[in-house]
Amino acid sequence: MEIRYYGHSAFELETKGRKILIDPFMVSVREYKPDNIYDIFVTHGHSDHLGSAIEISKNTGAPISAVFELAKYCSKQGAKSVDLGLGAWKDYSWGRAILVPAFHSSSAPDGSYAGCPCGVILEIEGKTIYHAGDTSLNSEMKMIGEVYAPDVAMLPIGGRYTMDIEHAVIAAEWLQTSAVIPMHYNTFEAIKVDIEEFKRRIREVGKIPTVLGIGSSIKA
Q1: What would the pLDDT profile of 3-37 be if each residue is shown by its tens digit?
Q2: Residue 5 contacts by C-beta under 8 Å, 6 or more apart in sequence?
Q3: 103 phi-psi bin (left φ>0, alpha ψ -120 to 50, beta other)
Q4: Residue 106 burial (CB < 10 Å; 0-12/13-18/19+)?
Q5: N or C terminus of the chain with fewer C-beta within 10 Å?
Q6: How far apart are CA 190 and CA 167, in angstroms?
Q7: Phi then psi for 167, rounded to 5 degrees?
Q8: Per-residue pLDDT tens over the stretch 152-182
């Protein structure tokens, strides 16, 4: 499996030629051309996470999986959708996924309520990937570590609206993960951080800082 980063909180996971998008806010890769997209996950309704999901769904036929209210909003905009709740696995052609709690807010672009914000855990090729969405540090991460023990965790570090570096380091310990991919940082002035500080502090607790440049990827 390959994990590719497209800036902010946007990722593309590829397994056996099938691609899965998470929070496709493609402001850093405006030339992005969706290809072989099988599924799209959106953690909450804010525009910097919903991003191009509706457009990509309409152009490719790939359904958007999201919490019930957000999925229904996407359907009303002409996209295909899969409505989910928190806490139950859903099978997909490439593996399975489950939504877990995130502590944030959520509204659709028209201001309507978009359901609760979420993180998403995906099981692909025997690996467990956790995308935290926008969230503060919270005790649910201890449960996620105990129950799911993610191999890779994508954690926001930008502060202001989400966890900062200090709290992301604690989250990495609670999650019992080894590899941490930072996200939701340096896109805007309000979430600028020193990425070298993140690398240093995450190494101090025995974790691997997996910092990806825009468009770069890792094998998992």
Answers
A1: 999 999 999 999 999 999 999 999 999 899 999 99
A2: 11, 181, 183, 212, 213, 214, 215, 216, 217
A3: beta
A4: buried
A5: C
A6: 17
A7: -80, -30
A8: 999 999 999 999 999 999 999 999 999 999 9
